[in-house]
From TrEMBL:
Keywords: Antibiotic resistance, ATP-binding, Kinase, Magnesium, Metal-binding, Nucleotide-binding, Transferase. The active site is at residue 162. One of its GO terms (biological process) is response to antibiotic. InterPro entries: Aminoglycoside_PTrfase (IPR002575), Kan/Strep_kinase (IPR024165), Kinase-like_dom_sf (IPR011009). Residues 5-227 form the Aminoglycoside phosphotransferase domain. Transmembrane segments: none annotated. This is Streptomycin 3'-kinase. Mg(2+) binds at residues 167, 182. Belongs to the aminoglycoside phosphotransferase family. GO terms for molecular function: ATP binding; kinase activity; metal ion binding; phosphotransferase activity, alcohol group as acceptor. It holds the Pfam family APH. The keyword Manganese does not apply. It comes from Kribbella rubisoli.
Amino acid sequence: MDVGESDATVYRLGDVFAKSCGASGVADLAAERDRVAWLAGTGMPGAVVVDWLESSSDGACLLTSAVPGVPGDALPPSAHGAAMRSFGSALRDLHALTDCPFERPLAAVIASAADVVRRDAVNPDFLTDEWRLLQPSELLSRVVAESPYVESVLEPVVCHGDACLPNIFFDPRTLEVTGLIDLGRLGVADRYSDLALAVIQLHDEWSADPAPFLDAYGLPEPDSRRLEFFRLLDPLTWG
């Protein structure tokens, strides 16, 4: 099965997940391996690295333990309220970690978005109906114009980098978070890069008011400008 937005392919082998890629994707998969290993050492719930297989010609395969539970997008509506609170608490704990060796500077993320736009590789499925009416270059211009404000209030923390519901696993009985997956973008970045994606996911996928999530996170009144900025920036970085 194909999972996530990368070019890797993921298979489940009992209690182990195997994520494989071709030669061109080895560096990205190795970066994810290192992030999985680092996060496992912090005590945060999640996978552990089981093995790493690499061939100079064929690519690589990352073997990790399966995270128990179910992804957030598989939870029934009756579970959403409690799950939002667990999600908020788990993200708060992640953002409280220190000494992370990985970084995602805002300038580098914007440069990545500019490259995706230049290659005409923006996926329209990731854009709102309103944004699809504009050229990707116009959307990028909005990001660039707003970036000085975001830089002026930057709050760097350890971010997941793709904090969407399929990447957050829950115990279906207790609704506690059991682990975070797809850590290829984990690194120090503005906390709103995670918050923006989480909030829009809760709205779009669960039709939910994110207040319980934000309350549990400890930010009941977030900065709407930063939420909108990172909500627009994220879809420009995949491609």
